[in-house]
Design goal:
Length: 148
């Protein structure tokens, strides 16, 4: 078992803890409610569109610099040097964040001479926009729109 698995197990509540909370909330049938919660988790974990959203948002939101890079790359192609200057960061830090964005498919690099110029991966953003639009359309719990 790796460290990540151990950490995730520490963050998860046990069935007993969840049932205890459901009983304290005077839920009419805690066992059925627990099974429904497990199904919701499983459905979420196996929904490719929702997993895509999680991955995409984690990619650009993991570090403030990544979101700034995406914003700058939305304006025009930029090299590592361009981004270093605009972000006031050293080369290793910028290179690492660029590498993560490339690995996640958020941006693409194009080699020109000794420099690589980066730009956004339009298809990835279009996929995210389509999935997010669908999610918004399917959501029903909007503030101010609920009927008691």
């Amino acid at each position: 078992m790796d460290i990540k698995s151990i950490k995730n197990k520490k963050n998860l509540r046990t069935k007993e803890e969840i049932l205890k909370d459901l009983r304290q909330e005077n839920h009419p049938n805690p066992e059925i409610a627990y099974e429904q919660l497990i199904k919701i988790r499983s459905d979420f974990d196996h929904n490719e569109e929702k997993q895509f959203m999680v991955s995409f948002l984690n990619s650009i939101g993991n570090k403030v610099d990544r979101f700034k890079m995406v914003e700058l790359l939305g304006q025009k192609k930029q090299s590592n040097s361009d981004l270093q200057d605009k972000l006031n960061k050293k080369q290793p830090a910028v290179s690492h964040q660029l590498k993560m964005l490339v690995q996640d498919g958020i941006i693409q690099g194009e080699k020109k001479g000794k420099y690589t110029y980066y730009s956004l991966n339009r298809l990835k953003f279009e996929d995210m926009a389509n999935i997010l639009t669908k999610w918004i359309d399917e959501a029903s719990n909007w503030f101010g729109e609920l009927s008691a």
